């Protein structure tokens, strides 16, 4: 499969935007990254199906979250399942906890990548 480096850069920018919006507790900026039919599993294992469920949860929880915002996200592996679908393994580092999310992203007809499914469950030691 011929991989376009512009697609890799676009996916890395999505991951960077997740980091920025999480730190800023910017629910609308975070939600702009999601496909309308997205599936998301939260850090505590809550499964959210569809944009409306993700939006309701995010708008309630993110602005009122109590962590100190010291978190980083890095795409450490991108596997293109098709030219318009990628599984992206994320290195997520919190000051007090560890996690390793997985995002599945799809490329829209306009060339924009969006999160289509995500697993963000916290790893407890």
Give an overview of the whole structure.
- With 125 residues, the chain is of the alpha+beta class.
- Helix content is 29%, strand content 40%.
- Strands 1, 2, 3, 4, 5, 6, 7 and 8 form an eight-stranded mixed sheet that branches.
The helix content, as a percent range, equals 25-40%
Order of helices and strands: HHEEHEEEEEE
Counting helices, strands and paired strands, the structural category is: alpha+beta
The count of helical stretches stands at 3
Return Rg in Å: 14 Å
- Percent of residues in beta strands? 35-45%
The count of β-strands is: 8
N-end to C-end Cα span: 38 Å
Summed over residues and divided by their number, the pLDDT gives a mean of: 85
Low-confidence stretches: none
Shape estimate:
globular
Task: Explain briefly what this protein structure is.
The chain is α+β, with helices and mostly antiparallel strands and 125 residues long. The protein has helices spanning 5-24, 27-31, 51-61, and strands at residues 34-41, 47-49, 71-82, 85-94, 98-99, 102-107, 113-119, 122-123. The model has no long low-confidence stretch (mean pLDDT 85).
Topology:
Layout: H1 5-24, H2 27-31, E1 34-41, E2 47-49, H3 51-61, E3 71-82, E4 85-94, E5 98-99, E6 102-107, E7 113-119, E8 122-123
Parallel strand pairs: 1-7
Antiparallel strand pairs: 1-2, 3-4, 4-5, 4-6, 5-8, 6-7
Q: Which terms summarize this structure?
A:
125 residues; 3 helices; single chain; globular; eight-stranded mixed sheet; alpha+beta
């Amino acid at each position: 499969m011929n991989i376009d480096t512009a697609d890799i850069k676009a996916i890395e920018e999505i991951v960077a935007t997740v980091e920025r919006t999480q730190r800023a507790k910017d629910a609308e900026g975070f939600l702009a990254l999601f496909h309308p039919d997205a599936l998301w599993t939260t850090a505590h294992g809550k499964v959210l199906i569809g944009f409306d469920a993700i939006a309701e949860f995010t708008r309630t929880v993110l602005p009122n979250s109590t962590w100190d915002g010291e978190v980083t996200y890095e795409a450490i592996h991108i596997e293109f399942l098709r030219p318009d679908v990628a599984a992206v393994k994320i290195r997520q580092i919190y000051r007090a906890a560890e996690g390793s999310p997985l995002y599945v992203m799809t490329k829209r007809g306009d060339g924009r990548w969006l999160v289509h499914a995500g697993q963000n469950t916290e790893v407890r030691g």
